[in-house]
Amino acid sequence: MNLDETQRKKVGEWIAQGLRLSEIQNRISSELGARMTYMDVRLLVDDLKLTPKDVERPKLVASPLAPPAGAAPAAGAVSNREPPGQARGTAPKAGGVSISVDQIARPGAVVSGKVTFSDGNHADWYFDQTGRLGLAPQQPGYRPPPADLQQFQTALDAELRKMGF
Fold this sequence. Notes:
- The protein is α+β, with helices and mostly antiparallel strands and 165 residues long.
- It has helices at 5-17, 21-31, 38-47, 146-163; strands at residues 87-90, 98-102, 109-116, 122-128, 133-137.
- The chain has a five-stranded antiparallel beta sheet, covered by helices on one side.
- Strand 1 and strand 2 form a beta hairpin.
- It is rod-shaped and about 80 Å long.
- It starts with a helix and ends with a helix.
């Protein structure tokens, strides 16, 4: 659809106001009475040699718990540069429970890793293809305390969210 010169100037004003292309498309339809697809609006803006303003994205706020950028890791800190197949990262100890996520999941699992409970016992954990959580303690018959299980699930949830699961 072709717009006359006054309509084109109106589109230029909307761009200068910082409107997004979808908003301009709606205004062209409602105020100018012309139906245009989103692609038509993009091409029109390009033909007019206009550049929409970028909306400022919110800046990430550094966590007070995270080390400053460029800071050297503290003594005893876990590096994220483990060899393939080894654990990736370690969640901070939450009441004595710490977890790690394997870079390569164990066979039959979507994601897996290791957990150390407050009493020092270790176990492997995994999520299978159906989404069930499994624990395989290194000591046969071991059952972690209920409080540790809750801390483990909370820490695991936080770690997996960071990874996009």
